Amino acid sequence: MGIEEALPASARDKLRAELLAEDHIFIQALPKVELHVHIEGTITAELRWKFTQRNGTPLRIAANGSEIHSLKELEHAMDLLRPDPSRVNNDEERFQFFEAYYEGFACLKTKQDYFDLAMHYYENTARMNVRYAEIFFDPQGHTAKGMSWDVMMGGFREAKERAERELNVKSAWIMCFLRDLSPESAMEHYEAALPYRDIIVGIGLDSNEEDRPPVLFDEVFTRARKDGFKLTMHCDADSKNAHEHIRQCASVVAGHGLDRIDHGINAAEDQGLMNLIKERDLGMTICPWSYLRHTTFEELGPKIRTLLDVGIKVTINSDDPAYMEDCWVLHNMLLVRRLCNFSDREFLVLARNAVHACWASDAVKEGMLREIDLVQQHFMGEQ
Ligand code: ADE
Ligand code: ZN
């Protein structure tokens, strides 16, 4: 990092308010596809409090130590966990994030909790004109606390069906393996998930990337591709060996590489990687707000612009809104407008990129492209 530091939490709050105060009628109106959001990253303090109250379970935040007795106390405890460059360095920040994130899973006990969590996502993003989403979930984090697949997937399935019926939001789920666990555990979970494959479109890899290269999971990803799943993996911003991890994702794993890359922003530093990603026409799921925690405006904007300018299918997404100043896909789009000075026409490119990069049926994709055309006509009077 240069002289400039990443923004502290209070400055990120201020930035969120500033971005929302800017004119965003066009960006709001755009039909959106979200391809990178972790359902467990949408467990807000309110939801956590609601579930623990409803289930009569105690609520404790490890870093805080004592039991939490009110929503206010919970909000305060979660606020203290927000990364701040004046307090934590990059590695600590990542570690602290994962600790807080996995602790949050404990509040989910019943099918109703899983349903409510997913509906909360769908309702929130329907208001931002999200029309289609591919949503990550981390089954190993749930089975580790004894959760049954039927409870978890039953809740997700009912919410998915209701969102499609009542909110005009279509979706599919992406099962992520935790890369800090073993490839054997990934394979066990892969097999256990097969009865639910009608709502699972793809397989991903997330969690702590340190010393866990993509090729470690080659066997399960190769099998998943043979079985017809789409494939993606996280390449977190500025992680150790970021370039090598991106190279393995783009050209090695499962025979010739994956179908998309999550984050992968460091590809912008390497022309060879960008060529590879472009040749394979891989979508990239960029989540700018999450990079703000450990990088600067000066570094970030040019990287995202470079990826778009070379013709890579960049898409804009939210990652973990409950841990990122309550910033959802709309806020992330407003942030990239500020960072990269993107025009409305460039937002049309981003919106169409997400449709092309998603794994919906051709009919669903065509419907979304037509809707984007209509918004273009409405605002620009042309095709
Ligand atoms: N799981 C949830 N959010 C994540 C992120 N940003 N990187 C890796 N794993 C994650
Ligand atoms: Zn992610």
TrEMBL record:
GO terms for cellular component: cytosol. InterPro entries: A_deaminase_dom, Ado/ade_deaminase, Metal_Hydrolase. One of its GO terms (molecular function) is adenine deaminase activity. It holds the Pfam family A_deaminase. It comes from the Eukaryota. The keyword Metal-binding applies. Residues 31-373 form the Adenosine deaminase domain. Its cofactor is Zn(2+). GO terms for biological process: adenine catabolic process; hypoxanthine salvage. Keywords: Hydrolase, Metal-binding. NCBIfam families: aden_deam (TIGR01430). This is Putative deaminase. It comes from Cyphellophora attinorum.
